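Example 3.2
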Amino acid sequence: MAKEKSVEAVKSAAAQPKKKRSIVKYFKDARSEFKKVVWPSRKQVVNNTIVVIISLVVSGLAIWALDSAFGSLLMLILGRYN
């Protein structure tokens, strides 16, 4: 019985037309949300940028080292069978 009521409630909710939101209301809502955002300070942005750059360099070096090692290993294996 309860299942039938919930199915009917969903059907009646789906049958109702959706309200159209205006573009003006959208931008007003977006502006109010931007006021709630806590923006980072310049110092935080610089520190985070430095951390990202260092992480990229370390990751790049690790990938380069593995690529070189596997390439050398492959050349060693193929060189023996040539």
